[in-house]
Design a protein that fits this description.
- The structure is a single chain.
- By secondary structure, the protein is of the alpha+beta class.
- The strands form 3 sheets. A 4-stranded mixed beta sheet has the order 4-9-8-6.
- The protein is elongated.
């Protein structure tokens, strides 16, 4: 039996390689640790072809997701939301405008963006604020949120 074998790493393994790489390891290491723990597959022709196909499909899916996110980012870049809140003296809000409020305002405009993807400083007074939405790993959009006094509190 050969002392070394080639395996395809299923995920990153410290000091060995990244997921998707074909590496040469000791046969005992592969047989007793990498294969049973699901860290690797034997590098047969069929497994290599299947793994290459999976990488290709994942790459295409990631490219489509990035393209969709870029299109949404373009639309969001021109968006301007207005949120009315009850205010006290000097334009201070009773409470604050939260990520949840901004998410609800976006849903009302037809955009379905999770509040965990929104980034904004604390909004505790009236004014205009820039909100950043992280839509994909490399795609983000910034839009404007205007906080105004509610008609009831203005009197």
């Amino acid at each position: 039996m050969s002392k070394t074998v080639h395996v395809i790493l299923q995920r990153d393994v410290a000091k060995l390689g990244k997921g998707g790489e074909v590496v040469k390891v000791a046969s005992g290491y592969a047989r007793n640790y990498l294969l049973p723990e699901g860290f690797a597959l034997s590098a047969s022709e069929g497994n290599v072809a299947r793994f290459e196909h999976q990488k290709k499909v994942a790459g295409e899916k990631a490219a489509k997701t990035r393209a969709d996110a870029a299109a949404l980012a373009t639309k969001l870049g021109t968006l301007e939301l207005t949120i009315a809140r009850t205010v006290g003296g000097e334009g201070k809000l009773y409470g604050s405008v939260t990520h949840k409020d901004i998410e609800a305002a976006l849903k009302a405009k037809g955009y379905d963006i999770d509040r965990k993807k929104l980034s904004v400083d604390n909004i505790r007074s009236t004014g205009s604020y820039a909100v950043t939405a992280k839509l994909a790993p490399e795609v983000s959009a910034t839009f404007k949120v205007n906080v105004v006094a509610d008609a009831k509190s203005a009197s």
